[in-house]
Design a protein that fits this description.
This protein has about 300 residues and is of the alpha/beta class. The protein contains 13 helices and nine strands. The chain has one domain: Rossmann fold. The relative contact order is 0.15.
Length: about 300
């Protein structure tokens, strides 16, 4: 069943649905056709709500597309039966990095839009890099806010992750995670651990999402199926300028660790942002808008 978008969801008037790449997408689109196309990709466990203040500000200068990633929030992975009776296919695991990049690429093809700039928050930056490296997009620049390029240890990726994936894909675990998120201040505590400073309204949006079992399953699946060491290695060949913005208070993607990984990406530039945690688009939307405008020349 396709999840219903609440009436008070940020930028709900911009929401539309599009089926492509095995996904029934929720995507928000705004701006002027013919202007630079800016693709906004949220992070693990997020949604279009991360861009609540960024999207409308950018739309005055660009054609902006912001989807919910596969399985997140209001984007639904089609069942096998639905894929067989529709014109869409799913070419790869939607929780893998390559599969997610492929799905977003197919969405942009279905929308007949080619991104001039891809902006990713946290894991969204990894999707942006994978799309570009795999030839699914040819942007003139990539921006990463708190880019999640710091991988777990290799032994997790090579040995433990396949076993963890079996648990992650169980409906029981997803329902349990959703139930736990409804108990007290668990979501608020989790967000606070990132070093971010959020309003109660920001926290309430995440709490709403993590009460949805499908959303929890998508977030858990991403965390357990992504091979970030391979992405960083491959990104050594990246020729597109990649600007990474690091929050000085980010405890999930610490600036010093991020800097070490970016040394392996010659086209990258690191910018430190003081007094900001891991959720930069929500904590400092004006700074994000300024960074995007610098690239698109507006």
């Amino acid at each position: 069943m396709t999840p219903t978008i609440p009436q008070n969801w940020p930028n709900r008037a911009l929401s539309r649905r599009k089926v492509a790449g095995g996904i029934d997408w929720h995507v928000q689109i705004d701006g002027v056709a013919g202007r630079p196309v800016v693709l906004l990709l949220h992070g693990t466990g997020g949604s279009t709500h991360e861009w609540a203040d960024v999207l409308p500000a950018i739309a005055t200068h660009a054609h902006v597309v912001a989807p919910d990633l596969p399985g997140h929030a209001f984007s639904r992975v089609l069942t096998l039966a639905e894929r067989e009776t529709s014109a869409t296919t799913r070419r790869a695991d939607p929780w893998s990095l390559s599969g997610m990049a492929s799905a977003v690429g197919e969405l942009m093809q279905a929308l007949e839009l080619r991104p001039d700039l891809i902006v990713g928050h946290s894991a969204g930056a990894a999707v942006a890099l994978r799309m570009t490296l795999d030839g699914l997009a040819a942007p003139r620049g990539i921006i990463g806010f708190n880019p999640a390029l710091i991988p777990p240890p290799d032994f997790w990726v090579d040995i433990l992750a396949p076993f963890a994936a079996l648990l992650v894909e169980s409906s029981w675990l997803a329902r349990s995670a959703a139930w736990a998120s409804r108990q007290g201040g668990l979501v608020a505590s989790m967000l606070a651990s990132s070093g971010a400073t959020l309003t109660p309204e920001h926290v309430a949006r995440y709490a709403y999402l993590f009460a949805m079992p499908a959303h929890c399953a998508a977030a858990l699946g991403m965390m357990n199926k992504w091979n970030l060491p391979a992405l960083v290695r491959d990104s050594a060949a990246l020729t597109v300028p990649f600007t990474a913005y690091a929050g000085a208070r980010d405890r999930w993607v610490p600036e010093d660790a991020l800097a070490r990984h970016l040394e392996r990406i010659p086209s990258s530039t690191l910018v430190s942002v003081p007094d900001i945690g891991h959720l930069m688009p929500e904590e400092a939307p004006a700074a994000c808008v300024a960074a995007i405008r610098r690239v698109i020349g507006q």
